[in-house]
Amino acid sequence: MSPILSIENLDKTYPDGFQALRNINLAIHKGEIFALLGPNGAGKTTLISIICGIVNATGGRVTVDGYDIQRDYRQTRSRIGLVPQELTRDAFETVWDKVSFSRMLFGKPRDDAYLEKVLRDLSLWEKRNSQLRMLSGGMKRRLLIAKALAHEPSVLFLDEPTAGVDVELRQGMWETVEYLRQSGVTVILTTHYIEEAEEMADRIGVINQGEIVLVEDKKQLMRKLGTKQLVLQLRESLEAIPAALADYDLGLSEDGSALIYTYETQSARTGIDDLMQALGEAGIRFTDLHTTQSSLEDIFLDLVNGS
Amino acid sequence: MNLRGMYAIYHFELARALRTWLQSIISPIVTTSLYFVVFGAAIGSRVQEVEGVPYGAFIVPGLIMLMLLTQSVTNASFGIFFPRFTGTIYEVLSAPVSYLEVVVGYVGAAATKSLVLGLIILFTAQLFVDVPIAHPFLMLAFLVLTSFTFSLFGFIIGIWAEDFEQLQVVPLLLVIPLTFLGGTFYSLDVLPEFWQTVSLFNPVVYLVSGFRWSFYEVSDVPLLVSLGMTFFFMLLCLTLVWWIFRTGYRLKS
Lengths: 307, 253
What we know:
The complex is a heterodimer.
Chain A: E1 5-13, E2 19-28, E3 33-37, H1 44-52, E4 59-64, E5 67-68, H2 73-79, E6 80-83, H3 95-105, H4 112-121, H5 137-149, E7 155-159, H6 167-182, E8 186-191, H7 194-200, E9 203-208, E10 211-217, H8 218-225, E11 227-234, E12 250-252, E13 258-264, H9 272-281, E14 286-293, H10 296-306
Parallel strand pairs in A: 3-8, 3-9, 6-7, 7-8
Antiparallel strand pairs in A: 1-2, 1-4, 4-5, 9-10, 11-13, 11-14, 12-13
Helix pairs in contact in A: 3-5
Chain B: H1 3-19, H2 21-43, E1 49-50, E2 53-54, H3 55-86, H4 89-93, H5 99-128, H6 136-160, H7 164-180, H8 193-199, H9 203-216, H10 223-247
Helix pairs in contact in B: 1-2, 1-5, 2-3, 2-5, 3-5, 3-6, 3-7, 3-9, 5-6, 6-9, 6-10, 9-10
């Protein structure tokens, strides 16, 4: 299947010399939800802004549905909806005027029934005649989504959709993204909340210092997450793992005072019973034990600190 | 062409003017009427005629120009500055509209408003004095040309300005003084020769002079020079706008 969004060798250097993006290569598939994870200043917003036409790239190529974002900008932009990170500060227009304007700006003929559906789905229909200054923060954020959906885009960018949003609203936002998935829209969201990526995404990309350092299926990442370590503090230190225990996935701590057993939590047999028995038979005694699990956050921090 | 997109911007801008009709329509009419009453009545009682035209009628084209220039610059600059200020400019930049369509939308709306205001003031003036129009089509052409050119100029200021002070400084410190010194209330003939020469460097002189000619067939500079200078200024603004979009100046990084 050809990707709906393809990014090749994309570079961005700002006039002050700051290199925001370095040789980005990424393909997004139709209908998926892709989470772009990265710390503040990693280049997430710059990447989105280039694809949407708000920032000029220094080098590389981006295509949307096969169209080049520069040469065929009308084709690409009409397919894209953008929900920016910052709430806008406009105040006096009504909700209905704003979504109507958005639809028209993107060249779509008037369709009140469609706009009504979007507003109803985002729980804004009751507020259609309210001025923007009367809306709460959560409503304003939903209005930005409604505006982005007003022209029926096939790709939607959500830039930090839950930044500065309380827990309840964040839950609501996740439900909104699920609704978008069901309506067939490809969603690319940026976030620095790991749990958000975990909750919503099909695939996860990690960006740091302008470089994509990882792109992986969420399930595979979760499988990595599913690995646990059992740490056994030994009564007497070992110099090497005894031959009798060679069949087990065992490691020895640097000072030889602990054995570390790695196992899959989701497998039918973790092998802990057998290991305990084998340890007893080999005469290895331990004073304490505990288990650890690497989280997506650990993986993320490893990647970000390592690069 | 994305005509709908262009119209969306145009319509949105005009709707803003109508929503704030007290400020954008009534206020310039009241201001111009005050000028008219104060200058026309106070000075007009002492100065009977300028170049064969009653003083009250003589200042009408100048007053219309004064309003046209300030309103075009203010409206167009605010029109594009405001979405930059509120952050909604992202939507226009990410929409499938060309630069030309964006300019026609914003500048066209500001020019339309100025044009309508100019005509309203002309009719208002008719209530005070008799204002014959010798060349109505040429008069309209000057109105359209000036509204468009100075709306372009305002658009440039709205993109250049980084805060509200910068937004105000050009209309207040440049456009209004140039208009007052541009023969709005007098004929250049009354100035000493030195100041007459200095005045020829003021572009507003050419606008007021040409516009006044279309009413009374009296002018400070030849009509063709007036038209030529107006077109020259328009081309200058168009070139600047073209450069802004080509480079993304203050709009795209």
